[in-house]
Amino acid sequence: MVLYQQVAEQLAEHIRTGVFAEGERIPSIRKLHQQWGVSQSTALAALSALEAQGLIEARPRSGFYVKALPERLQVEEHVPAPVAVSRHQLINHVLNQSRQPGLMHLGAAVPEAVFLPQEILRRISNRCLREQPGLITDYAFPPGNKVLRQQIAVRMQAAGCSVSASELLITQGCQEALSLCLRVLARPGDLIAIESPAYHGLLQALEALGLQALEIPCDPARGMDLEALAAAIQEWPVKACVVSANFSNPTGSLMPDEHKQRLVNMLSEAQIPLVEDDTYADLHYGRRQPLPLKAWDREGNVLYCSAFSKTIAPGFRVGWVAGGRYHQPLQQLLTVTTMASHALSQQVMAEYLHSGDYDRHLRKVRRQYRQQLHNLVDALHASGLPVAWSLPQGGFLLWLILPAEVDALAVYEQMLQKGISVMPGSLFSASERFRHCMRISIAVSQPDWSLLVAALRGSLTD
Ligand SMILES: Cc1ncc(COP(=O)(O)O)c(C=O)c1O
């Protein structure tokens, strides 16, 4: 994060936690310069960023004041009743439309090829095929390629988890890992607590398995509201909880460490298994990788799922699950469902990780995503459109909040006509929420954000 963002984030934190109350004046540019030791231009950039997020407002000749949080940015306080999920048709319709060639692809959360290490993967694949021809004919039975599991275990240990290769199962992407966990933990009709908004693939998995969603309100910056979760597990017989604490999809929220610890402890005490989806963690903009929930797991209650789909190769379908005390039933289920997966992609992934290129690649794409995000935020800011947005500290997704009366599904259709695909917000809820929101992927090469702004302006003023 660059300095002005750090200052903005600190001030935002003070606003969220009530250090600066609604209507209160916040430190002026001069005070920030004197007391926080930042230049006046950094202070101004930080205050402008907060103004763009709708957190503060400038009053002529007086300074900046904390705004009443607009209704559309507030975290809902009540927990809705559980609902059966039926989003499959809508989600498939949008996903199919958004894959059309020739569009500016801001919809699907799939990085364009320029953000993936294609060349080195091609070289390793060719070498593997030459040296180990069996890789295209052999089964790769669970638990999966041993060297790959060792490489993943080393990375997970570096991220604060005490996990060994023997506790990992290789899956076909994170989607299979999530789906296996849900099938091991719950039966049709059971309640699963999820983030609201939640990743649409999770909603589809719940629907396919006949599970009900209990949507727990989430803050676009800090993730799940733990008070709401605590109330929900008191009131409802929750079978499992699925959380993406590091750069959630769609908002990019990052849960603070104290909340992570509290969440893990709360669910462990309540004996509710916690499924962690850590797909985006490697894409942090800050210096250090944020800790996963699994780092606080002492009892094997966290089923950690992830994949290399967002960082190395979505098409390789290499993901994994560290299932804690559910490792055995997960392995059994994997054996009778998928039975085996691709030996070649697992071997190439193992060799790629072993090559040491991954961290260099990550440093590069993190820089690129951060820059693209800045450019988009600057364009939105300059546009003067009546929209608010999340300010993710990692990943490549931005959550855009339109005025409450706007139907983002209609905006989505209009934008598609103008050659731009985005993801309408209602795909991320089982209960018709977020109709006025949309998700934008910034993992596109050389995006012209003025086209997006013009299309948005057209749709919002139609
Ligand atoms: C949060 C999240 N979890 C899981 C997945 C599925 O990933 P995979 O392609 O590895 O199955 C995605 C893909 O968009 C995602 O965004």
From TrEMBL:
UniProt keyword Cell inner membrane, yes or no: no
Is tRNA processing a UniProt keyword of this protein?
no
The protein's matches in InterPro entries, at most eight in alphabetical order, are given as:
Aminotransferase_I/II_large, HTH_trans_reg/aminotransferase, PyrdxlP-dep_Trfase, PyrdxlP-dep_Trfase_major, PyrdxlP-dep_Trfase_small, Tscrpt_reg_HTH_GntR, WH-like_DNA-bd_sf, WH_DNA-bd_sf
Pfam families assigned: Aminotran_1_2, GntR
Keywords associated with the record: DNA-binding, Pyridoxal phosphate, Transcription, Transcription regulation
**CDD domains on file:** AAT_like, WHTH_GntR
The residue ranges of the HTH gntR-type domain are 1-69
Family note: In the C-terminal section; belongs to the class-I pyridoxal-phosphate-dependent aminotransferase family.
Protein name per Swiss-Prot or TrEMBL? HTH gntR-type domain-containing protein
Q: What is the species of this protein?
A: Pokkaliibacter plantistimulans
Q: What is the lineage of its organism?
A: Bacteria, Pseudomonadati, Pseudomonadota, Gammaproteobacteria, Oceanospirillales
